[in-house]
Design a protein that fits this description.
510 residues, alpha/beta, eight-stranded mixed beta sheet, four-stranded antiparallel beta sheet, 20 helices, globular
């Protein structure tokens, strides 16, 4: 009696199946799995409201091979995700095994209902293809429930028009000079130098460079104009020691390295373990050998530690609402935005972010040898921008800092809620296609607050407002404190009013 052929192990069956695939089928097979892996990271980060990176950042990381196909498939699946979830829930066809691979199921369901069903090969694909009729019936019922006539009308409910913007690329001068970058990119499309950021090039909207050799080898970085302005605003010199307080994914970090010509030392802080890996990849790609990655919390660095006694510049680009780059980051495709949970005007969330931002900025200003501090966000909200800056001005002044004007030729400045708003820089989401904020603090003299030249100790004997306008509580807080001396101008009036509650009219009489 003939023996029955032994059943091949599942892994071997899959290997043989892959070998029988055509090139197009193989490309689609791997693109779906790469898209599913990225989709899982995106959805988990969105659910926790702590994204590892933007959709684009995740797709165009070195670990993703078929970037173009993966990006297109991921975006289309996210656009259709509410429909896909409704269809799968209505059919109840996913057992526990396939529910554990939910992201892959979403991707394949998109292809079956809206994409390239002809190229579907693989075990997961076969499982859903056998249930294609059930999926299509559920979709038909969804059309009735949504009161639309066809799939195109249903898709319109979930689509947001794209905002065209120029393609900006920053030349990594650690590897390539600007002239050669212009010549090489000019072979593919029109390219010109930006009129403000010295190492930034401008290309037509929609220019696809993701597989261009200059991008893949780190000679140029795809980086927006406003983002590229941040490191330039700090203006570090070769040989400086600099801290990038919230570094990942690292584009600004390696821009600092290029501005410093690879000389000196950059301490790149990042708290999130997953984002540290992304940061390290960016640094390696850029060839930024003067960057040291510190996996830790910037707020826990001891500013008095001798290790940081030579730090002269700090770039602080902390976590923010991201409201200025939501469209560019494709945040509108995320489930939290579709349900309204991701509304960037959520006051509670913004208040918590602003509290963290203020704390981080105060800490940056406390480093004893620091000469320049840049605070930047990709937010459009006053509470994260001007209000944070306004809240630290008295402390900054006590350390000898004052606001300086980054890019004086830039036309859009800060909201006029503080006298120094003309020094602040804003980019507009409509005019500039992204909303950024930059504040530059420059130290005119280096001293500790309690050792300021010309400072006075407030006590009962020399307090000029002895009991008149300062409450007992505030007077107790003021005792044994040193107050820097200021000439009586508008700035000093504001400082006294904010710190000690002195009435404006009383100051004016002096």
């Amino acid at each position: 009696m003939a023996k029955r052929p032994e059943k091949l192990p599942q892994q071997q069956q899959q290997q043989q199946q892959k070998q029988r695939m055509s090139n197009a089928e193989r490309s689609s097979y791997f693109a779906r799995r790469e898209a599913a892996k990225v989709l899982r990271t995106v959805l988990q980060g969105d659910a926790r409201r702590r994204a590892v990176g933007s959709i684009k950042t995740l797709v165009y990381s070195p670990s993703v091979r078929n970037k173009k196909a993966t990006f297109a498939l991921l975006c289309q699946t996210l656009k259709h995700l509410p429909i896909i979830k409704d269809v799968l829930d209505a059919t109840s066809i996913l057992n526990s095994k396939w529910k554990r691979q939910g992201e892959l199921m979403y991707i394949i369901t998109y292809d079956i209902l809206f994409g390239q069903a002809a190229l579907l090969v693989g075990d997961a694909e076969k499982f859903l293809l056998l249930r294609k009729d059930a999926l299509q019936s559920a979709l038909a019922r969804l059309l009735v429930r949504k009161k639309v006539k066809n799939i195109e009308d249903l898709k319109v409910l979930y689509q947001i028009p794209d905002i065209p913007k120029p393609r900006y690329v920053r030349v990594n001068t650690l590897k390539l000079d600007i002239k050669n970058a212009l010549d090489e990119l000019g072979k593919q499309t029109t390219v010109k130098k930006d009129d403000m950021v010295p190492d930034l090039l401008v290309l037509p909207p929609g220019t696809d460079l993701h597989n261009h050799p200059l991008v893949t080898n780190g000679s140029v970085f795809m980086q927006g104009k406003a983002s590229s302005m941040v490191a330039v605003a700090l203006g570090p010199k070769p040989g400086w020691e600099v801290i990038d307080a919230c570094s990942a994914p690292g584009n600004k970090t390696v821009h600092l390295a290029a501005l410093m010509k690879g000389e000196g030392r950059i301490i790149a802080c990042e708290l999130n373990k997953d984002r540290v890996k992304r940061l390290q990849d960016t640094i390696a790609l850029a060839g930024a050998n003067n960057v040291e990655v510190l996996h830790g919390d910037f707020l826990k660095l001891n500013s008095k530690d001798p290790s940081y006694s030579k730090v002269r510049g700090i770039l602080l680009d902390p976590s923010c609402s991201g409201s200025g780059t939501a469209a560019d980051r494709l945040d509108h495709l995320l489930p939290s935005y579709a349900t309204g949970q991701g509304d960037a005007t959520d006051i509670d969330r913004l208040t918590k972010l602003a509290a963290f931002q203020k704390k981080a900025l105060e800490h940056a200003l406390s480093f004893p040898a620091v000469e320049r501090v840049v605070y930047s966000t990709c937010s459009i909200h006053q509470i994260e921008n001007e209000e944070v800056v306004k809240s630290v001005i008295p402390l900054a002044a006590s350390y000898g800092f004052q606001l300086a004007t980054p890019f004086p030729q830039w036309p859009r400045r800060g909201l006029p809620i503080l006298e120094e708003s003309v020094h602040l820089l804003r980019t507009d989401p409509v005019e500039d296609k992204e909303g950024f904020f930059i504040a530059l603090f420059v130290r005119k003299s280096i001293h500790e607050p309690e050792k300021a030249i010309g400072s006075k100790r407030i006590n009962e004997e020399d307090d000029p407002y002895k009991g008149k306008f300062i409450s007992k509580k505030k007077k107790a807080l003021s005792k044994n404190r040193f107050v820097p001396y200021y000439p009586f101008n508008k700035m000093s009036k504001m400082w006294l009013y904010l710190q000690y509650g002195v009435h404006k009219s009383t100051i004016s009489k002096r």
